[in-house]
Amino acid sequence: MGLLKSFFTNCANPKGRMGRLMLRFMNFGHAPVTNWGLDLISFKDGWTMLDIGCGGGATLKRLYKKGANVKVYGIDISEESVAKARKVNADLLDKQVFVCQGSAEKLPYEDGKFDLVTAVETVYFWPNLPNCLQEVLRVLKQGGKFAILVEVVEGDSIWTKVVEGMTAYSPEQLKKLLDDAGFVNTEIHCKKPSYAAIFGVKP
Ligand SMILES: C[S@@+](CC[C@H](N)C(=O)[O-])C[C@H]1O[C@@H](n2cnc3c(N)ncnc32)[C@H](O)[C@@H]1O
């Protein structure tokens, strides 16, 4: 595998020194789309929230600042991401921020736990997305919201060529996947250059 391709594999599952570098870059580089997308949500005090594919944990920190008495959970398939997210949130770790290793395919949380589930720049890598969406529905409370934030929306983008195992979905495809999974009030928001936020609510 070429050096560039091998480096970008760390987007899908950060590992080792290159993975740590990628996590630092993503914490910084994904800030604009994340801040834009989270600003579209009306947060409430006391919410329990989950960020799937939390990477280096910057989104956990942002979610934590969105309300009083909130609890924020993060999960990621990569050991390196979990370590970085724990470090970035060390001050609140295991008190109000909880981070564990695991996959969107089988979430280690009880039914109806979360008011909000977020997925920032990660659904590209989830195997069997419809199954993962059922897991998201299961862990959401009734009326709870799922927010997908993505920057890569074109199937033939350069990113899908350099990042192995990456699938880019259009906002319309993601909305349909949410509709088919059983979410209601699904919405698409877009902002140039290619930011997209796709929301759905558990009925
Ligand atoms: C491009 S990074 C985005 C990280 C973070 N959300 C951000 O915005 O900086 C994708 C993250 O999704 C994680 N990931 C990939 N497949 C996953 C899965 N099946 N379940 C949970 N996390 C996954 C990767 O390990 C990686 O940390």
Radius of gyration: 16 Å
Quickly give the CATH architecture.
3-Layer(aba) Sandwich
Number of helices: 8
How are strands sequenced across the largest beta sheet? 3-2-1-4-5-7-6
Task: Report the top-level CATH class.
Answer: Alpha Beta
> What pattern of helices and strands is seen along the backbone?
HHHEHEHEEHEHHEE
Secondary-structure class: alpha/beta
- In helices, the fraction of residues equals 25-40%
The beta-strand count equals 7
**Arithmetic mean pLDDT:** 95
CATH topology type: Rossmann fold
- Give the percentage of residues in beta strands: 15-25%
Domain count: 1
How would a crystallographer describe the biggest sheet? 7 strands, mixed
Q: Could you say which small molecules are bound to this protein?
A: S-adenosylmethionine
Low-confidence stretches: none
So what's the overall shape?
globular
Termini separation: 45 Å
Q: Specify the CATH homologous superfamily.
A: Vaccinia Virus protein VP39
